[in-house]
Design brief:
The protein has eleven helices and two strands; from the N terminus they run αααββαααααααα. By secondary structure, the chain is mostly helical. The chain has two domains: about 70 residues, Arc Repressor Mutant, subunit A; about 150 residues, GntR ligand-binding domain-like (Four Helix Bundle (Hemerythrin (Met), subunit A), Up-down Bundle). The chain has a two-stranded antiparallel ribbon. The two termini are about 30 Å apart.
Length: about 240
């Protein structure tokens, strides 16, 4: 396998290495079951330290893309969809996934608060963003802004200004992750599109009836499912 890695010193080295190994997996240069180059080979080709290599490999393993066998090395476990590197730079993927990881408990709690505190006005704002998102998606366009507005409307409904502030801080990373995920969904089946819409509708319904537990679970399920769709080319829905 060609180990001609490119380094940009302005970007985090472990993210770059993660992205370039990911790119080789997506492109099929490294197939399921293939053994990755050794740490020594990667160190020589990428000119980075062992801690950088281990951080990149740990992230790839945590994201379900590789697995390790003691004394044997690391092997490819799964191949993400091609759209993952078509719609964003490979070196950005690790950061996008860390954003999903942070959102999972955070937005679950926010949805739970919204189920407790949402006013009629809040519910109208959430539903309005949801309807707009569905309309844009049904027209074959990318609804990342409407998707983000939906999540922000829920944060506003939580009645805690820090929830709004935190999501605002995550705006760029969230929109980027949504854009990639929605682009992949757009190229998939109608069932996948319907599934994405149903996940959002389930979140809204749980908040609208004031079901705290269901809102938390629905939000967590949606974020985890979006992350899975992002990383697994075999997941049809």
């Amino acid at each position: 396998m060609d180990l001609n890695f490119q380094i940009n010193k302005r970007e985090k080295l472990s993210d770059q290495l993660y992205g370039q190994l990911l790119k080789k997996i997506v492109a099929g240069e490294l197939k399921e079951g293939d053994k990755l180059p050794s740490e020594n080979e990667i160190a020589q080709a990428f000119q980075v330290s062992r801690p950088v290599i281990r951080e990149a490999l740990m992230r790839l393993q945590a994201d379900g893309l590789i697995y390790s066998r003691q004394g044997a090395g690391s092997f490819v476990k799964a191949r993400p969809p091609e759209g993952l590197i078509k719609f964003t730079a490979p070196s950005d993927i690790a950061g996008l996934l860390r954003c999903f990881e942070a959102r999972l408990p955070l937005e679950g709690a926010i949805a739970s608060l919204a189920a407790q505190r949402a006013t009629e006005e809040d519910l109208k704002a959430i539903e309005s963003a949801l309807i707009k998102m569905e309309d844009i998606m049904n027209k074959g366009a990318i609804a990342d802004k409407a998707d983000f507005d939906f999540h922000m409307a829920i944060a506003n409904a939580a009645g805690n200004e820090f929830c709004v502030s935190i999501l605002s801080t995550l705006h760029t990373a969230m929109r980027s992750g949504m854009r990639v995920a929605l682009n992949i969904t757009k190229t998939g089946s109608k069932e996948r599109l319907k599934k994405v819409q149903e996940e959002h509708r389930t979140i809204y319904d749980a908040i609208a009836i004031g079901d705290v537990t269901a809102a938390d679970l629905a939000m967590r399920y949606h974020i985890q499912s979006a992350r899975t769709r992002l990383m697994n080319h075999q997941r049809g829905a």
